[in-house]
């Protein structure tokens, strides 16, 4: 359905940069682009604001879709605009798209495209199409509304405006999750941010699809064989969730929807998941590292999600600590250790401090001394310095470091007694 509007004014559209509409219209004329429209979050939030003028909304990127070449439009735009206003212009040949910064806001321009998935969860094969067909490839009906530039016509083929009023999240088609399971994560993000709820049909689609598991890759297979929607793209969506959203609410929704079965059954069933991740954040641990650390197979999951090397090392070292403390001779002996002995044992392993914290957060039975080391003991310094020892007659060399550490451990034991 297309609703006739009137020429757009940025003043009436929340977060639409002043001057962008006119600049895009001029660039479209110069590059023979016949149709272009604003899509996605900006349109959704504009319509929500029309329903409730007191609604507070976060700034969102501006997504523009064009019938024709997005790169051609972006180049025409660059020719007309002061480079200081249009910054960080980038072209992406794979999907004929471009992006840039305008007054600090990210603007994405993409060519209208149809998508065909060669296999569930894989990257799609695309071809250019009309704006209307482009809307039908999107995730939820509330994100499949377009606002034409400059006419101001609203294109809404999937009852998106109706669902905005009803505060519903509804997948556009019945194979939405099968084609791209990262849409489950996006659904949780939208629901937590906007206070919307999944329709019964969409919830059924999530649970039925994850139970049926239509993807060629399955848990236990080589991580390198996992399709992008269960690996790199999944990781990207989870990172966005932790960075931009009410992640606690998103986690609650994902567990309720059986969405974490994409990661592991142990994460899906963990009743303390949110508390564990928050505790990890309090210790300075990256939330993605903590999420993966909750899994019963953290090493393989970290590899599948392509976590950075540092995060994988922290996970690996935390597992080493768990194994070390579970050994019978250590587990019995360390019960009577003084703080200085704990410090020596931990520090001799040359372990990253966050690895120790992660080991403590993962329900380790020796978490109290590990936490004490992370919070207090590792930060304590001896009363004197190397300079003072040299002034007292010590020769420069490793013996000074050993003496300073001895004095530090002695101080720690004395403080612990108090």
Structure notes:
This protein is α+β, with helices and mostly antiparallel strands. It has 4 domains: 1-164, 2-Layer Sandwich (Beta Polymerase, domain 2); 167-262, Orthogonal Bundle (Hydrophobic Seed Protein), CATH 1.10.110.30; 284-379; 381-418, no CATH class. It has helices at residues 20-30, 41-51, 70-80, 131-135, 160-166, 176-179, 182-194, 200-212, 232-244, 247-256, 265-269, 273-282, 287-294, 298-304, 309-326, 328-333, 339-347, 353-361, 367-375, 386-391, 398-417; strands at 2-3, 36-39, 62-66, 86-92, 97-102, 105-111, 113-116, 125-128, 145-149, 154-156, 168-169, 197-198. The strands form 3 sheets. Strands 1-10-9-2-3-6-5-4 form an 8-stranded mixed sheet. Strands 7-8 form a two-stranded antiparallel sheet. Helix 7 (182-194) packs parallel to helix 9, helix 7 (182-194) crosses helix 10 (247-256) and helix 15 crosses helix 18. The protein is elongated, with a radius of gyration of 27 Å. The N and C termini lie far apart (75 Å). The mean pLDDT is 91.
Which features does this protein show?
two-stranded antiparallel sheet; 418 residues; Hydrophobic Seed Protein; alpha+beta; 21 helices; 12% strand; 12 strands; 4 domains; eight-stranded mixed beta sheet; Beta Polymerase, domain 2
Broad shape: elongated
CATH homologous superfamily grouping of the largest domain: Beta Polymerase, domain 2
The N- to C-terminal Cα distance equals 75 Å
Radius of gyration: 27 Å
Count of domain modules: 4
Number of helices: 21
Helical amount among residues, as a percent range?
Answer: 40-55%
């Amino acid at each position: 359905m297309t609703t006739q509007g009137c020429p757009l004014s940025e003043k009436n559209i929340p977060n639409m940069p002043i001057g962008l509409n006119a600049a895009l219209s001029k660039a479209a004329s110069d590059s023979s682009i016949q149709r272009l429209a604003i899509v996605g979050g900006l349109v959704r939030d504009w319509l929500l604001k029309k329903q409730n003028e007191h609604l507070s909304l976060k700034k969102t990127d501006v997504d523009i879709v064009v019938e024709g070449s997005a790169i051609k439009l972006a180049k025409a735009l660059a020719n007309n605009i002061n480079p200081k206003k249009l910054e960080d212009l980038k072209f992406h040949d794979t999907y004929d798209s471009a992006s840039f910064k305008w007054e600090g806001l990210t603007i994405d321009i993409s060519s209208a495209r149809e998508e065909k998935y060669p296999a569930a969860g894989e990257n799609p094969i695309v071809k250019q199409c009309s704006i209307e067909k482009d809307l039908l490839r999107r995730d939820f009906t509330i994100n499949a509304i377009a606002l034409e530039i400059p006419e101001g016509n609203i294109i809404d083929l999937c009852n998106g405006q109706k669902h905005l009023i009803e505060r519903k999240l509804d997948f556009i088609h019945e194979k939405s999750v099968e084609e791209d399971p990262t849409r489950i994560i996006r659904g949780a993000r939208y629901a937590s941010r906007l206070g919307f709820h999944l329709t019964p049909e969409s919830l059924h689609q999530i649970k039925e699809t994850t139970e049926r598991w239509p993807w060629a890759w399955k848990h236990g297979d080589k991580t390198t064989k996992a399709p992008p929607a269960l690996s790199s793209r999944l990781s990207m969506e989870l990172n966005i969730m932790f960075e931009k959203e009410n992640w606690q609410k998103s986690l609650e929704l994902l567990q309720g929807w059986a969405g974490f079965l994409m990661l592991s059954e142990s994460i899906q069933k963990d009743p303390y998941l949110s508390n564990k991740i928050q505790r990890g954040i309090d210790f300075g641990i990256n939330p993605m590292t903590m999420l993966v650390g909750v899994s019963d197979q953290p090493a393989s999951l970290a590899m599948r999600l392509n976590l950075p090397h540092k995060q994988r090392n922290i996970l690996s070292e935390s597992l080493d600590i768990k194994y070390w403390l579970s050994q019978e001779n250590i587990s019995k002996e360390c019960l009577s250790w003084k703080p200085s002995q704990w410090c020596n044992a931990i520090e001799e392993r040359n372990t990253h401090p966050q690895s120790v914290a992660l080991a403590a957060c993962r329900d380790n039975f020796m978490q109290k001394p590990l936490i004490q080391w992370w919070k207090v003991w590792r930060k304590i310094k001896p009363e004197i310095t190397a300079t003072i020892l040299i002034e007292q007659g010590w020769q420069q060399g490793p013996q000074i470091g050993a003496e300073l550490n001895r004095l530090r451990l002695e101080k720690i034991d004395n403080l612990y007694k108090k």
